[in-house]
């Protein structure tokens, strides 16, 4: 059996290592250049590879193709592979068959990284043998090659879910759904929603689907479609007989005759959206039989994900917050909603078809000044120029931070929450966040 791996990043190289360990013939092909770090790993395991091209004859000689989630199905080589009746799957599908312990899978348009990290934190502090992977950290496949018996908590994007066939998580979580990546789904929102719900397609009555009861799109899908899994809702607006809900200033998680009560004030992370993330993670922890006291302690000492409402530092009594991972309007909505002081907002980048009207009430209420950081800021200017006192355009992170410092007064917050992709001025959202933190540290 020959496995072809397309894309030699973290996911692809991890898949190649696992496939080699399981006795497959392996060939890795990347249309771009492969980093020295990954070349070294491929060479160490004696795995053949190519870069800067896709050799068609080699690729079409494979039995299975595992592709990087970043490669769209529309590209010519994928179309050729499919025309030759060769199955194209994701790393998740390939690695799953070698993972002896059922996994926990988490998806959603926003909150999935925080929920994945928090769930892993709760389970590992609770004494379980767990790993973390998927769209976060080390490759799931590479970890399975070394530790196949761990329960992995996996953050899964819609792209990764597109490539599953039989993958079945014991516990699945959908944090929320809002429009994102529509360019990969023929600009049809329903295609994107259906991709997210692939997380539950192979679940049985012995499995669990944890989901946001308040999310209109999730409710609509569950009304019109079936899942065999036992449904575990969470809500901040309705008291539920089964699931997680708010009662006063407490999170209540009531499941299978077990109830956990957690004061919101004890959460280590702030904001309404993080109350929901905590509900989802706590529901997983309860299903995995983690002790109540351990859950409570773990929720209070969890620090949150980098680039997600990350408190960088205070300078002259102005709090600087890095929310670079907010690459869509919905994520920025959560960020602005959690602001408690007048805010200087750094926004902009590559617009993904954003509707900025959704943020208008929050901008009017919370934002005093806007710093536009992007090559094309015309939509942001059109939306907010008449709403805030000051709106300034800049072309570098150094200028953005300096300008924000000038506009902020003692007691204010400077928030980087771009609502856009980063590729016009930065390598990715991490690069954007790291540059922001470096410039704040230079103040």
UniProtKB/TrEMBL annotation:
InterPro entries: Mur-like_cat_sf, Mur_ligase_C, Mur_ligase_C_dom_sf, Mur_ligase_cen, MurD. One of its GO terms (molecular function) is UDP-N-acetylmuramoylalanine-D-glutamate ligase activity. It is an enzyme of class 6 (ligase). ATP binds at residues 108-114. Coiled coil: none annotated. It catalyses: UDP-N-acetyl-alpha-D-muramoyl-L-alanine + D-glutamate + ATP = UDP-N-acetyl-alpha-D-muramoyl-L-alanyl-D-glutamate + ADP + phosphate + H(+). Residues 307-420 form the Mur ligase C-terminal domain. One of its GO terms (biological process) is regulation of cell shape. PANTHER family: UDP-N-ACETYLMURAMOYLALANINE--D-GLUTAMATE LIGASE. HAMAP family: MurD. This is UDP-N-acetylmuramoylalanine--D-glutamate ligase. The gene is murD.
């Amino acid at each position: 059996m020959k496995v072809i791996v397309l894309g030699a990043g973290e996911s692809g190289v991890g898949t190649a290592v696992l496939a080699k360990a399981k006795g497959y013939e392996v060939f890795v092909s990347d249309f771009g250049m492969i980093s020295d770090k990954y070349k070294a790993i491929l060479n160490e395991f004696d795995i053949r590879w190519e870069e800067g091209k896709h050799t068609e004859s080699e690729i079409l000689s494979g039995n299975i193709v595992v592709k990087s989630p970043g490669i769209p199905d529309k590209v010519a080589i994928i179309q050729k592979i499919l025309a030759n009746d060769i199955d194209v799957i994701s790393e998740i599908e390939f690695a799953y068959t070698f993972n002896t312990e059922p996994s926990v899978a988490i998806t959603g348009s926003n909150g999935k990284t925080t929920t994945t990290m928090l769930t892993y934190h709760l389970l590992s502090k609770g004494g379980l043998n767990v790993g973390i992977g998927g769209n976060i950290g080390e490759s799931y496949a590479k970890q399975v090659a070394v530790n196949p018996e761990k329960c992995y908590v996996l953050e899964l994007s819609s792209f990764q879910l597109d490539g599953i066939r039989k993958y079945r998580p014991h516990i699945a979580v959908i944090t929320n759904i809002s429009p994102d990546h529509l360019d990969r789904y023929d600009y049809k929102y329903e295609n994107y929603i259906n991709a997210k719900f692939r997380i539950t397609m192979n679940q049985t009555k012995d499995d669990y689907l944890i989901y946001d009861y308040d999310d209109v799109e999730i409710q609509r899908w569950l009304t019109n479609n079936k899942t065999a899994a036992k449904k575990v809702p969470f809500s901040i607006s309705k008291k539920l007989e089964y699931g997680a809900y708010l009662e006063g200033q407490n999170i209540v998680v009531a499941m299978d005759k077990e109830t956990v009560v957690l004061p919101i004030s004890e959460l280590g992370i702030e904001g309404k959206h993080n109350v929901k993330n905590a509900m989802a993670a706590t529901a997983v922890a309860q299903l995995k039989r983690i002790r109540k006291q351990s859950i409570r302690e773990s929720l209070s000492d969890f620090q949150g994900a980098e680039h997600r409402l990350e408190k960088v530092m205070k300078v002259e009594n102005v709090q600087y917050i890095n929310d670079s991972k907010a690459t869509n309007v919905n994520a920025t909505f959560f960020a602005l909603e959690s602001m408690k002081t007048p805010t200087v907002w750094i926004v902009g980048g590559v617009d993904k078809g954003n509707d900025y009207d959704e943020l208008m009430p929050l901008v009017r209420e919370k934002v005093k000044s806007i710093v536009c950081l992007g090559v094309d800021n015309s939509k942001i200017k059109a939306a907010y120029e008449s709403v805030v006192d000051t709106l300034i355009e800049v072309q570098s992170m150094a200028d953005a931070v300096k300008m924000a410092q000038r506009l902020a007064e003692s007691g204010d917050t400077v928030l980087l929450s771009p609502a856009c992709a980063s590729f016009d001025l930065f390598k990715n959202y991490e690069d954007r966040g790291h540059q922001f933190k470096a410039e704040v540290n230079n103040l």
